[in-house]
Amino acid sequence: MDYIRNKFPLLQKRPYQLSRNVYIQVHLCVLPAYRWRPPKHRLHRRPLPQEPNNQREHSPFDAQEHSPLLQLPIEILEMIADNLPLASAASLSLTCRQIIFLIGTRHITDLETSRHETLMFMSLLVHDVREHIVCITCKKLHQISLARTYTEYQFQGVPLATDPKVLRSLGLAAYAEGIKMVTLYIAKDLKYYHRFKDDLPSQQLLHYIMLRPFSYCLGRRYSTVQKEETEWRVHNGSVYIRTHQNFQGNCSEAGVLLFKICQHLILRVCTHRGRCFIVDWTLLGVKRLIWKGNHISLKLLHCRHCRTEYSMEFNHKKNRNEDCPYEVYLTTWKDLGQSLDSEEWKQHFVHGRLAHPQRLKFPKREIAKIFYGVNPYNRD
């Protein structure tokens, strides 16, 4: 202790501080001169204390309990809902529990009066529930994973993901109509309520609801077999469809076959004579193009009034017997456009037999190459 007093005069003036605490203070005064300090680049400043935020920030998942629309008066909320479409007003009432308590459920109950508004409301819900799709037949939401299960048991002519019980109630008329008008009768609702795009979910949905390959027998001895296959594609926002038909049979069973290429053209095949006619129902008269022979092959033609391309092949193995076999292959490619208001979509309809549709000019193989990546039948 004497040695420490001689070294530090300050401690000599206050001997009463010489205690255990003094020794500790002495060491604290001496050691800092030799204490190691880290480099400046390793020093980090302590963050300044922030004032506590009394107002809690709500996440988007709390929309059912808290909504910024609650700050508006009830009169303004009712005015907004009344000026919105019925499907949008019903969707607005479901955004928050307090809003549906203030506005009421009258917009949701009004959906039952209109099939169109109900499907539009379902299409709005699909944006939030992406694993579901809208069924146009039963007006309900189904899981997209169940779409494949439903399509295995449903009518082949109505390619919709729905309950098989609902489809059985449609009857045979809807089944036959779906086969003949698969490109127009069904695609109308699909395009309008699903808004297909180039993304993967849209492509999967098209794969689920497209017409599956199927075959059935006709004729007195069931020797005539017809096979159909349909494929959908989306390219640059437009919906394209390819329909392939294969008809096999005997001359004594069929006689005359009719194939609907589009609303303007009908393919008529006389099997026993080996002739093919393409009938044009537009303008004031009926025009016919005739091909003769046991083997007729039309590489790729197009309709002059709508964006439809088609190809046909006819094989007739003529012999002395009446039951000579034949085969007819018909493939059509159609461009349905991007929306129901587009000109491509309107061109697929005939507005009366006295109407004068305009003639179209588009490059050859423009529609068919969407399904093949290259120009089909290009042997040059």
From TrEMBL:
Positions of the UniProt region annotated as Disordered: 42-62
Annotated ranges, domain F-box: 66-124
Pfam families for the chain: F-box (PF00646)
Domain of life: Eukaryota
CDD domains according to UniProt: F-box_SF
Protein name as catalogued: F-box domain-containing protein
